[in-house]
Amino acid sequence: MAVKGVVYVASRLVVDAGAIFSPGAVAVADGNVLLAGPKADVLRAAPSGFSRMEFPGATIIPGLVNAHVHLQIPRFLGDAGIPLPVPTSFVDWILRVIAWKRGAAQASFDENFRSAAAEALSFGTTTVGEIAGPDLSAYVGCPLRARVFAEGIGFAPNVASEVLALVSVAIDRLEKISVGNPLVQAGVSPHTLYTVGEALLRSLADLAAAKALPACLHLAESTPEKTFLSDGGGEIASRLYPAVGKDVSWFRGLGRTIPSYLAETGLLREGVLLVHNVHLARPEIDALRAGGARFVLCPRSNAAHGNGAPDVTHFVDAKIPFALGTDSLGSVPDLSIWSEMRAARSLYKGRKKDAAMCRELFRACTEHGAAALDLPGGILAPGAPADFTIVDDPGGDGDRFFRELLEKTDRANVRLTVVAGKSAHGAAA
Ligand SMILES: [Zn+2]
User: Among 56, 78, 135, 415, which has the highest number of CB atoms less than 10 A from its own CB?
Assistant: First the structure.
């Protein structure tokens, strides 16, 4: 009996940032790519009985990877339903998130998640690096391929064991969820270095290593963070902790550089995912990279908070792979990874030609994004999951194709988003 499958045919196929076929096709069976290449070759080799779907004037690309999101955090709206402006003080922003988490209705987390996941798919995203929200059951029906990081927060040494136990329970729950929904994979996230003390950081690093799970840390996002970690002072000590009724006057700074602190606590090892990376000097980035770190940059979120900008130029020119993430809807107006690529493009000040830079950004949001999350995908080779997006063909060839793609593509140009061989957004032609 013939295997059931589908051949998707389009004017162009992007297998990865380095291989394009015009026209191209992808044959999909059992949620995976069976064949990908020139249209004529794929049609010739596809088993009989496969159905065919044609997308003239369109390009098939690997599904995009949004490597840092919080899909349970909503847009924060004022009384009139208009989005509240992002506070100019980063500490005020953190306090807003804390107040939201404490006051939100339990049912709202799942509603936020569903709506944000649908929004991500509508932009052509198939894969996310998600910081788990309060409602883990939301991930049972997760329509995106997702690395879901269970988050731990606790600064004082005496709360470390209690928080570790909570994170362990959350990971057990996520691992049970992934049995029923293999799109979901667990990870561990110490929140930040100013909200996770050394004892908890060590415990979470040990947990990640013992379970062979990736770890994810928000790092070097803001000036208040940098000040607090250097000497224990600044707004985090004087405003954030007093507002939540905690005394951190005993903390006088890390007393070490960030790379050596992360190495000593055991978090810096192959695959640790560092998010933001704004307030790092180039030698620090290089040391973290040498220690095995992977990087996610979130330029639009950083700009929205007045936190500065990541050193895109260094990442590109030093050939340090990076991924991009939008961060949450509380920080950015939408989950467009296209807008994130354009924001990163505008930050690059090196000598690489613009069109070649656009190709690098495409790689960041496909292959490098999947690798950063230690998830399959990001390319459309045989055996890879059938995670892809079909968008209006923007025209152009070589590097210029990627520039046209970046400039012209957004939600309105996404025709179909497919995750594990199933249509997750858009109408099949
Ligand atoms: Zn975040």
Answer: 415
Sign, CA dihedral 101-103-108-112, equals negative
Contact indicator for 234, 251 with CB cutoff of 8 Å? no
pLDDT in tens, 44-57: 999 999 999 999 99
Mean pLDDT value across residues 369-380: 98
Q: Which amino acid type is present at position 199? A: A
- Say whether the peptide bond before residue 190 is cis (omega within 30 degrees of 0): no
Residue 360 CA, ligand 1 centroid: distance in Å: 23
List the CATH code of the domain at 64-372: 3.20.20.140
Structure tokens belonging to residue 331: 């920080």
What is the crossing angle of helices 398-408 and 337-347, to 10°?
120
**Distance from residue 359's CA to the centre of ligand 1 (Å):** 26
Q: Are the folds of 6-63+380-425 and 64-372 the same?
A: no
Please tell me the distance between residue 329's alpha carbon and the centre of ligand 1 in angstroms: 10
Q: Of the candidates 2, 74, 54, 10, which has an alpha carbon nearest to the alpha carbon of residue 36?
A: 10
Contacts by residues 21-27 (CB-CB < 8 Å, ≥ 24 positions apart)? 24/60, 25/60, 26/60, 26/380, 26/386, 26/388
- What are the residues facing 425 on neighbouring strands? 417
pLDDT tens digits, residue range 225-250?
999 999 999 999 999 999 999 999 99
Q: Alpha-carbon distance 124 to 105, whole Å?
A: 30
State the distance from the centre of ligand 1 to the C-alpha of 144, rounded, in angstroms.
18
CA of 70 to the centre of ligand 1 (A): 6
Alpha carbon of 37 to ligand 1 centroid (Å): 37
pLDDT in tens, 181-197: 999 999 999 999 999 99
Tokens 């029906």 map to which residue? Answer: 141
CATH of 6-63+380-425 among 2.40.30.110, 3.40.630.30, 3.90.550.10, 2.30.40.10 = 2.30.40.10
CA of 83 to the centre of ligand 1 (A): 19
